[in-house]
Design brief:
This protein has 316 residues and is of the alpha/beta class. It contains eight helices and eight strands. The strands form two sheets. A five-stranded parallel beta sheet has the order 5-4-6-7-8, with helices on both faces. A three-stranded antiparallel beta sheet has the order 1-3-2, with no helix packed on it. A hairpin with a 2-residue loop joins strand 2 (63-67) and strand 3. The termini are far apart.
Length: 316
């Protein structure tokens, strides 16, 4: 509304501010949309905990209720924790660091292997090699040994060996491949650990804690969350539950890797542009240097013609 002088009413300004605030809030809510939702987790069975007699009291903040002697996990807290863990994993991946996925239980083996391979991260699904983190150089030697066997097989060095020796080497190679094949590309200590079933993988968690490596983990009601940096309270025994949580986390890691690629491409383009800008003055200087000697030559030509004209009458 305008008054007699043609000025807007102050109420209109207030209304427009309120509308802008609402629009901004809606935008922020869209940006902060959670990667999972309550119904999705409920359908996957993430809410089922262990029997009451097996519970760990440290998990009390994440337990919603008890039904038929079984604890029920609060899925609202699980949604929040998944988002926190996913964001942290995204930042680690964006910085170009490796995340080691660990789970040796039957339900999670195939899922871990599939998801970790899809995003190019190392994983351990067989027996956890004791001292893998705290005694990493020794593990690297075993991986190098496996690579050397492959190299010698390709060269044909083993063709002169007897059948028995060759069989022993191939068995040794198969054993190394089974236990360490998935971490062959891990040339340095991982920057984070993602664990399914903290109770079963307690050695891996302890090694990570000793070295100060952050641990992301699916923690059930029978486990201790105090040693975990990013707790995801969820059922770690159901295949669907593990898959839902891993999907959200791996999607975040994939986003981080894509952002890293985009940043690298932008940096490369900026560097090329800077080189071009720096090259322009150099080109102009070279062009001027090339033009400078041509000018005296042009000035010398009339002098030579004049000298030739003078010599001609003298000869006559």
């Amino acid at each position: 509304m305008k008054d007699s002088k043609g000025l807007k009413d102050p109420k209109d300004f207030k209304d427009s501010r309120r509308i802008k605030k609402k629009v901004n809030n809606l935008k922020n809510n869209k940006q902060k949309m959670s990667r999972t939702n309550f119904d999705q987790l409920l359908e996957a069975g993430c809410h089922f905990g262990h029997l009451r007699r097996k519970w760990n009291p440290a998990m009390a903040p994440y337990i919603f209720m008890e039904r038929n002697g079984i604890h029920i996990i609060d899925l609202h807290k699980t949604v929040v924790k998944i988002d926190e863990a996913a964001e942290a994993l995204k930042q680690i991946a964006k910085s170009g660091k490796k995340i080691l996925f660990v789970s040796t239980k039957k339900q999670a083996k195939d899922i871990i292997a599939e998801k970790a391979t899809s995003i190019g991260m190392p994983y351990v699904t067989e027996r956890w090699p004791g001292g893998m983190l705290t005694n990493f150089p020794t593990i690297r030697k075993a991986v190098k040994k496996m690579a050397n066997i492959d190299k010698l097989m390709a060269d044909g060095t083993f063709s002169n060996l007897s059948k028995r020796e060759l069989l022993q080497i191939t068995r040794q190679r198969a054993k190394l491949e089974k236990n360490l094949g998935s971490i062959a590309d891990l040339t340095r200590l991982p920057s984070a650990l993602f664990v399914v079933d903290v109770l079963k993988e307690n050695i891996a968690v302890r090694e990570a804690n000793r070295l100060g490596i952050p641990v992301f983990a699916m923690v059930d009601t029978n486990s201790d969350p105090n040693d975990i940096d990013f707790v995801i309270p969820a059922n770690d025994d159901a295949k669907d539950s593990i898959e839902v949580v891993l999907n959200a986390c791996c999607q975040a890691i994939a986003e981080g890797l894509e952002e890293r690629k985009a940043e690298k491409a932008d940096e490369k383009a900026a560097a090329e542009q800077a080189e071009e800008v720096a090259e322009k003055p150099r080109r102009t200087r070279r062009a001027r240097k090339d033009e400078a000697p041509a000018a005296p030559k042009e000035a010398e030509a009339p002098k030579e013609e004049a000298a030739a004209a003078e010599e001609a009458p003298a000869a006559e």
